[in-house]
UniProtKB/TrEMBL annotation:
This is CubicO group peptidase, beta-lactamase class C family. PANTHER family: BETA-LACTAMASE FAMILY PROTEIN (AFU_ORTHOLOGUE AFUA_5G07500) (PTHR43283:SF3), BETA-LACTAMASE-RELATED (PTHR43283). InterPro entries: Beta-lactam-related (IPR001466), Beta-lactam/transpept-like (IPR012338), Diverse_Enzym_Activities (IPR050789). It comes from Myxococcus fulvus. Residues 43-397 form the Beta-lactamase-related domain. The gene is estA. SUPFAM superfamilies: beta-lactamase/transpeptidase-like. Residues 1-22 form the signal peptide. Keywords: Signal.
Amino acid sequence: MNPAIASLLVAASLGVSSAAPATPPPSTAAPRASGASAVARDLDAVIDQALAEQRIVGTVVTVFRDGKVVYRRAAGFADREAKRPMREDSVFRLASMTKPVVSVAALALVDQGKLSLEDPVTKWLPDFRPKLPDGREPVITVKHLLTHTSGLTYGFQPQNAAAHEKAGVSDGLDEVPGLTLEENLRRLATVPLSSEPGQRWNYSLSTDVLGAVVARAAGAPLPEAVAKLVTKPLGLKDTSFRAGDASRLVAAYADGKPTPTRMGRTQDVPLWGGTVRFSPGRALSTEAYASGGAGMVGTAADYVKFLEALRKGGAPVLKKTSVDKLGAVHVGPESQTQGPGWGWGLISAVLADAEVAQGEQAQGTWQWGGAYGHNWFVDPRSGVTVVTLTNTAFEGMSGAFPGAVRDAVYAGLKP
């Protein structure tokens, strides 16, 4: 992600630890697909180097091409202090990787005729009426929420921090005792919009608002709606709004020198001139509200299955026409959502100008990540899907690691 972004979570009872790092355990790796030896060699080197340099604590990296596994490896620690090795079925706090799942749930409702992209948000949330600085109350549509052109903002963004702090708005990564989604949206509606809806891309709490819309349109709480519309049809057994098995949940770490620091119960971590507040224990809480922008947990295997379903056309959750729409450019590359050449679709960044981006990814690639330390991309033209999950914020999201993984994948897949 680039500096207009973030969203983000571990052993809540422990304070910040600066204990000396343990020696990384042996990694677990699936058998390599035929012809993938170059990918395996290059990715193993990238992962081993990141672990040796102590830039990440642990990771699970999965690569598919044309629907077949090319590479899959778990390496490092899920919990460094407990010396619990990372496993392929380790559960991660997905942070902003929640957004595509909730956005697909919304698009599934559109396919069913229960929701329209042009619906004003007030049709579903009559009391959600944020205003512009001049006092005008503009119309925000479902499409504005999906494209992050609603004028809403995030509190971790330095220019918006004071207003969000004053209103007591949660970004969906921290746990505020007693705070409900309805109350958080009421508070958010008191913060002035940053721009006229539809005018400018600004990464924001739009998907939290969208989650509330999905719940109303589906006639069920958001966790139930997402399960019915997305996770159950796809068989995503480990993807939900709460971790069911604490022993599989990875510990959360923040970038640090000489080694990443274990997050405490509540951890403020600097990011791009602002501060992200994490509450890792939120993933296990029965009281935390379901954040549509940051609240889910899941595994690498589940997320690959989700992305592969979309790459193949959307069945059984979306129509092919909806997949075409989500992968189209709705906000141009001037927004630089992932850097030069990147715009926005309906669930993620989309590579709108590959020539400007000057990389190996093809025009139309989808990409996003999560602040707990994740990155993913789907390159439909090349048939490539890559999911990189780590337990280290922010190296695994916006440090050197995800770019090195990407470059190793393309280098290894070249004829």
